Amino acid sequence: MAKLIGNIRITGVTGTEGAPAHFEVVFVPYSGRLNTKTVSVPTYDDLVAFLTEIRISEDDATRWAGRVRSGGVVLIPNIERNDGLLRENGLLAD
């Protein structure tokens, strides 16, 4: 398993007639070409749970989720994770 370094970008998407409001989470690597995927998270509580699943502390996850809920887009810098962890949480394609 390779370690990957990059940022996590979280975007708050407002609801429309056809789709409810949700959060989009994307891993943005510092270098290299990776087949990354966007994960859609429906609620604030689910976003906090998702961030803790990718090994961000619960306090930090709550802080980042609160910022995206009030600000729209947040970039979490310097994330170093195994590719397997990112893959099993849907941020990397197989």
Layout: helices, strands, pairs:
Blueprint: E1 3-13, E2 22-29, E3 39-41, H1 44-53, H2 58-71, E4 73-82, H3 83-88
Antiparallel strand pairs: 1-2, 1-4, 2-3
Helix pairs in contact: 1-2
Give a quick precis of the structure.
With 94 residues, the chain is α+β, with helices and mostly antiparallel strands.
Subunit arrangement of the protein: single chain
Number of domains: 1
Shape: globular
Name the average pLDDT: 93
Sketch the topology as an H/E string, one letter per element.
EEEHHEH
How much is the radius of gyration in Å? 13 Å
Low-confidence sequence ranges: none
Q: What's the total number of strands?
A: 4
The proportion of residues in beta strands is 25-35%
Helix content: 25-40%
Structural class: alpha+beta
Distance between the termini: 13 Å
Count of helix runs: 3
Report on the architecture of this protein:
By secondary structure, the chain is α+β, with helices and mostly antiparallel strands. It has one domain (3-13, 21-88). Helices cover 32% and strands 34% of the residues. The chain has 3 helices and 4 strands; from the N terminus they run βββααβα. The chain has helices spanning 44-53, 58-71, 83-88; strands at 3-13, 22-29, 39-41, 73-82. Strands 3-2-1-4 form a 4-stranded antiparallel β-sheet. A hairpin with an 8-residue loop joins strand 1 and strand 2. Helix 1 (44-53) crosses helix 2 (58-71). The radius of gyration is 13 Å and the shape is globular. It starts with a strand and ends in a 6-residue tail after the last helix. The mean pLDDT is 93.
